[in-house]
Amino acid sequence: MWLIIFAVSIGCGVAAAYYLAGKVEKTGIFSSVKSTALTKVLAVAVVIAIVVIFCLIFDVTNTIVIVVHVAVFMLVGDLVRIAALSAARRPLKPWIFDAASFTLCVIYLLIGWILMHGLWETTYTLSTAKDTGNIRIAQIADSHVGTGFSGKGFGEKLAKIQETHPDILVITGDFVDDGTMRQDMVDACAALEGFEAKYGVYFCFGNHDRGYYSNERRGYDGDDLVAELEKNGIKVLEDESLLVDDRFYVIGRADAGHGGSTRMSMQELVAGLDKDKYMIVLDHQPTDYDAEAAAGVDLVLSGHTHGGQIFPLEYIQPLVSENDNVRGHEKRGNTDFIVTDGISDWAIKFKTGCKSEFNIIDISGEGV
Fold this sequence. Notes:
Shape: elongated
Helix content: 40-55%
Low-confidence stretches: none
Oligomer: single chain
Strand order of the largest sheet: 1-12-2-3-4-5
CATH architecture of the largest domain: 4-Layer Sandwich
Mean pLDDT: 91
């Protein structure tokens, strides 16, 4: 799947660059050049130079995102101009549409940059027939520390979440990334130590937390991450459950990717638990809804999808991935499922289909 995504991304980037080279050629900046072939070469060279500059400022991934968006906006501008030709009483100047399209694209990407690097609260209110009382859960996922903010910057995000006064904080995977350096990991774990939550902080693994590449690349492995989290008072749950305040369970699942072939089934995880108590499941990837609903758990919290990240991937993901949901709340039977957009991102520094968020989930049960 990743190879297909990579190939499609490169293909789109090349096609977009070629299209933009054609736009450069039509500007007339090379009108003094008599050779058509040389004009095309110069136009391509200009685009290549711009691409290289953006790669140095950002990286290859984000440069592809920018180039493709510029090409799409310019193409839409061309289509609007063609459609307007029939209604126009005088010739339309292409540069006006190009300038408008480029300006709109810049504004669009600027908004996407803000939506990625900011942080918003998303609230959910749930009820249960179980004698649970009130529980306020703060959920974060996909911080990918080092992508949108440093380990110390993560502490600043936590400060905003702290203002909501949650009873419990849960981290549903991809706390760190393959490119998260050791010091950032250590700083982020240290920030969690000072987080005040009546029932503590809980963590389950995501597919990036253990790393896909050599551990020498970032200077630590999954066990080092666990040690650092536990050192700062965070409860790491991997196919484990804890009864909290004799009122509710927190059940952390092993990631469906790393260890997916050996992780326990949902039925195995709840076997022996008191079904009269509220059961909260932390499962990074939202790919096991039917089994989780059949097991009778009450709430499943996930991340992983990044809310689709770039429009219109929110609508494409369900068609091409194993994810049962991409973002937001869904209910199957008596089980509530929530997928967060995440507080950062894996690689792309723009969010045009969603925003960086943390969830506040207020649960009220009988006896309240």
